[in-house]
Amino acid sequence: MDRIERDVVVIGAGACGLTAATQLRRSGASVIVLEARDRVGGRLRNDDSSGALLELGGQWVSPDQTALKGAIEELGLETFSRYRDGDSVYIGPDGVSHRFTGDIFPASPETQAEIERMIAVLDGLTAEIDPDRPWAHPRARELDGITWRAFLEQLSDDAEARSNVAMFTAEAMLTKPAHAFSALQSLLMAASAGSFSHLVDADFILDKRVVGGLQQVPLRLAAALGDDVLLSRPVRRITWSADGAVVEADGDLVVEARQVVLAVPPNLYDRIDYVPTLPLRRHVLHQHLSLGLVIKIHAVYEEPFWREDGLSGTAFSPYLSVHEAYDNSNHGDPRGILVGFASDARADRLLALEPDERREAILDDLARYYGERAKHPTIYVESDWGSEEWTRGAYAASFDMGGLERFGADVRTPVGPIHWASSDIAGAGYQHVDGAIRMGHWVADQVLAALAPTPA
To answer: Which positions bind FAD (predicted)?
Structure first.
C-alpha cells in the first residue's frame, strides 16, 4: 500500500482541478491530484486517431471568457477564429431550407418580430440575475417553479418563436427538454454568459478555438505539476473529520491530507463512500442535480465544399435531430470539418438506432442543411459523453424543478475539509471551461484560507 501525505488532495484532473492544484502549489501548499481516467482533461479531449484532429469535448472561446483567455495566454497557446463568412441555414416547421444572415432566423415577419421581442424581455430579466446568486432574485421561487417551456408559453402565443428561443438554453446548452428545467435555471445560463443575446449570437459564444485543441490547457497544467498528477486512480472512500481526511484510491493508494477538493461533475459525487456519511441536506442536494445528454457529430470532408456555395457552415433547426451545426475546420488543415449536435430526446431516439442507421439519419440531416455532398464524409466520428464512465452526461449539471432556489446557495459550501468545485456549479462561465478555471481559482483561495493558521 502506498501512503502519501499532502496539504491538499485534488480529485479530478480537469481544467478546474488542475487550475486549483497549480495555484495551491504556487502558494506553497503541497498537492496531489488523483484522476480516475487514464488521461487528464476531464470533458476536454483532443483525438487524432481517425486521421484528423477532433475536439470531442469543449472547444470554443468567447470574448467574455476572461479566465480562460488568461490561462490560454499564460500557457503560451494561440487561438484562431471560427469560420463564419457567408449565409447561415435555417429549416423551419415547413421543412424548407432558408438562407439568412444575422442572428434572427428567417421566419415570417411576425415571428421574427416576436423572437426579437422575446429576446429583449429575456435580456431584461437576465440583467437582474446575479449568476453567482440566482436564488437571491426576488422572484426566484416563482421562476424556479415554472418550466422553461411553460414560461415561454406565457410569454408568447407564437409556437415557432417559442421553439427557437427555447432551443438556445434547452437543446444548445442544458441539453435537456424545455419541460425538464425551470425558467430560473435558463436565466442563470444566460446570465452566466452575460445576456440572453449572447447565447443567440453564434459569432459571440463560438468565437475562437485554440490551435491544436483546447485540451492543451489541462495538458500543459498537468505537465507542470509532473509526478503530482496520478492517473487511473478512481477515489473510492473519503474518511473525514475536522482535522483532515484520508482518501483511498485504486492501486492501494492512501492519501492523508488536511483539505480535499472534489473537482468532478456532481453526478459522480455519490460514487465515493464518505465516512462519516455526508450531512442529510448534502445528500438530498446531490439527488436534485443531473447532467443532460448530447451526441457531438464530427464529419470530415476533403474540402469545405459549403463555402463554395456561399455558406458559413452555421445551421439551425429545432425541428431536426441535428438541431445545430457549424464549420469546425482546423487551423492549417485544408480539409473541411462540420460539427453537429443532437441533444436530449433527439439523442435518445438516435442512440436507440443501430450505429449504421444512426449515421445515416445524422448525415441525412446534414444534407438537408448543406446538400448531398454532406452525406459522404471521409471521416465520421460521434462523441457521446453520456457513455463515458467518469462523466456520464453533458455538458454540465443542472437542477430539476425547484432545486436551484432550494439548494443553490449550498452547492459550494464545504463539508468539513471537503470542498466542491467544477464548471457545473460555477456562476460566471457556468458549464464552460471558463467557469471551470474560475472555480479552480476560487476553491484554491478557499482552501488556502482553511490551511492558514488560526490567529492566537
So the answer is: 35-36, 235
Contacts of residue 346, defined as CB under 8 A and 6 or more positions apart, other chains included, come to 171, 321, 322, 323
Residue 456 has pLDDT above 80, yes or no: no
Provide the annotated binding site for FAD: 35-36, 235
Residue 15 binned pLDDT confidence (cut-offs 50, 70, 90): very high
pTM: 0.97
Q: Which residues are annotated as a binding site?
A: 35-36, 235, 341
Structural domains of the chain, ranges and CATH numbers in brackets: 2-42+215-278+415-451 (3.50.50.60), 46-63+79-83+205-209+294-387 (3.90.660.10), 111-197 (1.10.405.10)
Q: In this model, does residue 296 exceed pLDDT 80?
A: yes
CB 129 within 8 A of CB 137: yes
Q: How far is CA 309 from CA 98, 306, 425, 449, in A?
A: 14, 5, 42, 58
CA nearest neighbour of 14 among 243, 262, 249, 250: 262
| Predicted pLDDT of residue 453 | 83
Predicted pLDDT at 379: 98
Kindly report the average pLDDT of the chain as a whole number. 97
Q: Cell digits for 178?
A: 424545455
The binding site for substrate consists of 341
Q: Cα dihedral sign for 391, 396, 401, 404?
A: positive
402 pLDDT above the threshold of 60 = yes
Residues 142 and 125: their CA atoms lie apart, in Å, by 13
